[in-house]
Each structure stands twice: as C-alpha cells, then as structure tokens.
Amino acid sequence: MNIPYLSDLFAAALSVAIVVGYHMFLRIRVRRDPGYTIQAVLNRGRTAWVERMMNESGGGILAVQTLRNAIMGATFFATTAIALIVGTITLSTQSDKLTVAWHSLSPVGTIDPNLWLLKLLILLVDMLIAFIFFSQSIRLMSHVGVMISVPTASMRPAFVAAMLIQAGRYHTRGMRCYYFAAPLLFWLFGPLLLVLSTCALVGALYYLDKSPARAAQVV
After folding, report:
1. Going by C-beta distance under 8 Å and a sequence separation of 6 or more, which residues neighbour residue 94?
2. Along the chain (219 residues), what's the average pLDDT of each consecutive run of 10 residues?
C-alpha cells in the first residue's frame, strides 16, 4: 500500500474518530443536562404542541397547516438530495479529466483514480441516506397529520407526539448527512482538507446543537 492510500486511510479514520468523539461528548452532556441540545428542547415543544392541538377544539386546521409547512421543507431537502445524487453520478463519469486537477492541492500528490471513485461512491451513499431520512420524516409527518385530528378518546396525544418526535429525528439525521457531505466533498481534493473540514464542521455543530438558553449562557 503506497503513501497516498495510507494518507487517505489515516485521514478518514481520524475524521470518523473526531465525529464519533463529538457525538459521544454530546450524549454525555445530554445525560447530565437534558436541556443542553436544541433537539431536546424541540422534542419537549413538539409534545406540548401535540397535546394542545388535540385537546383544544378547532386546533386541527392550525395543526395541519403547520405540518404541511414542515412536510414542504423536508420535501425540498429530499428533492435536493436526489439532485446531488445525480450530480455525483455525473461527476463520476468525468473522473479521467478531473482526478489530477482536483488533487493538485494534496500534499501527497495525485491519488489513484479508483480511490477517487471510491470517495465519490461514499459521497453518493451519504446523499442516498439523507434522501431516505427525509422521506421517512415526510411519511411520519403525514401520519401525524391524520392522527392529530382524532379525538383523544381514540388516540393518545403521547403516541402522536412520539411519532412527531421520531419524524423530527429523521429530519435531524438527514441534515447531519448534508453536513457530512461537506468534508466528503473536500476529501476529493486531498486527505488534509478532509481533516480540516471535519474539524470545522464539528466546531460549527458544537454551537448549532446547543439550545438557545445554553448558548446565551456561554455568551
């Protein structure tokens, strides 16, 4: 195995370790402080919102409109993921023209074209997973739109809230795949940029994942 392969392997392993380490840190903080992340705050808000919509008369129209807006947002991201998948496939057909130019920034020189295609394949899988997550989010929110109008005697608000929370989790995971696409794209230029972009991404996520109250305390 030559130096370019080893450098890419080391950079990929280091980047995965950085991302996994950040999420382990995030999980530990959430156990100590359940309101540390914006996701936890949103989940409490979703539960309260579902209970209000199902217990108040006339709340069905507002609930359906709110869910429709959320579905439109998830649909946009799912459609964008498909467009990026098509673009990645198109890019893979031009590997013979772009490999040398895209690796001019790499300190280890030009990478083997087969390795460059492997990077594109990983980027393609990332976008495909993002599409699946957004599709699942749309599916669950569509179900919530039906059940939220059902009387509480037939459907418990806690069950509907749990489904809405799961839809939100799928949406968050889809956005994570979008975020991870940035380091994967920089990886096409070389392993060093993969590590640097991963560190920048984790730094951005550190602030994005904080709840507004925790972020205000830091400021």
Report:
1. none
2. 74 94 91 86 91 79 87 94 89 65 55 75 94 96 88 83 94 95 88 92 92 59
